[in-house]
Amino acid sequence: MRLTPGAPHDIDLDRVDLFDLDLYTSGDPHPVWDVMREKAPLHHQVLPDGREFWSVTRYEDVCRVLGDHREFTSERGTVVTHLGVDDVAAGKLMTSTDPPRHTQVRRAIGSRLTARAVAPWEDRIRQAVVRFLEPALDGATFDLAEQALRLPALVTGPLLGIPERDWDELVQLTAMVTAPSDPHFRHGSEAATLAISHHELVAYVTERVKRRRAAGDEDGSLLDHLMSVHAGDAPLTDEEIALNGYSILLGANVTTPHTVSGTVLALVERPEQFEKAQADPSLVPNLVEEGLRWTSAACNFMRYAVGDTRIGGGTVPAGGAVVAWIGSANRDASRFTDPHAFDITRSGAKRQVAFGFGAHFCIGAPLARLTLRVFFEELLQRCGSIGLDGEPEHLRSYFIAGMTHLPIVAQKRKTP
Ligand code: HEM
Q1: For a pocket test of ligand 1, which of 254, 362, 371 has the largest count of ligand atoms closer than 8 A to its C-beta?
Q2: What is the CATH number of the domain that holds 372?
Q3: Which residue, 128, 213, 242, 265, has most beta carbons within 10 Å?
Q4: What are 52-70's pLDDT values in tens digits?
Q5: Residue 402 pLDDT > 70, yes or no?
Q6: 132 Cβ inside 6 Å of ligand 1
């Protein structure tokens, strides 16, 4: 998705189609969301097949929809690609479960993903990032967007206890689940792509659980942890373990790579920001926050209104699907001064909501932040210059804001 908006132009809100995939590949969504925040903070759209949804685009409304399960439930599904089809995993998959059950499961799983719990991973992540960057810095064309898809596997693969030989296949399957319309990942129709990839991923995790049980030992992995935790009084069922393992895999694989590529592109387009970060490495944590805000890789999440609910100056009827546009909230001028400027020294960048808000706030945020910090520390230390070597190609998805190709040419830094 284009992240630096083009010139403002007239936008007819009655004709805006937020499910038009061209908007995210060749179009320019930010000017559309700018107008929606100003003139239609609650926007209603009916799709040609009759499905309908409401959109909120303002920062405070996005936080309210994502954060208040009493008004907006996660139990019917939270991902727009499933709009109108109730989630069969509700109550079993953490993401599609409301408190209090959600709190029990999340507390049990989350203890292994806190900032303190992932800190010992830093050296391992750094080694993986250094290996990843090596071929990028030899002066030849390097497709960062394509290569970055493998980056989370280097981190979450060992964390989950998934053997390296399976990573490529899992990267492909997770990309199919989140961008089933993109020609790079599509297998037949969008529905078929979704069904195949979802089934294969859950089957993969189920099989791993079986093997781990048969092995009868402990490998210290997150999957082993999932197999041993108790939520409330009972252990997770095998189905819950498989679904939550799948969800962690998905959450990790599909977002971090696009944050990397989008942030690198922002730096390539603004050499003064690149130089500033290189001159002062203490800016890297803020660069990461600004990169998260700027890219908003998880562009939206969905909820269903529990009852008739007033929001954004209008009313969503009971049962209505509400899409909270995170990408828009992160450019809301009421929260971020000059929101379309990419500024690594921005104060308040940490208020970004790229990881969501409230009870479902990204459980992998500490790991993602650690991975991104290490990535940019190493990139800035090792890389003298980066340029584009072709046009970026954007992911064909209204759910994940990302790129499929970002050809760059980078040179090693002479005096690190
Ligand atoms: C830059 C990277 C990432 C971004 C932008 C991101 C974004 C998000 C967002 C917006 C949510 C909230 C969903 C909702 O409200 O319904 C979320 C939840 C989640 N994320 Fe992430 N994520 C990232 C990295 C990760 C990683 C590394 C993992 C795994 C280790 C992960 C696993 C999850 C899981 C399991 C949930 C569901 C949490 C719950 O329902 O309580 N994510 N993520």
Answers
A1: 362
A2: 1.10.630.10
A3: 242
A4: 999 999 999 999 999 999 9
A5: yes
A6: no
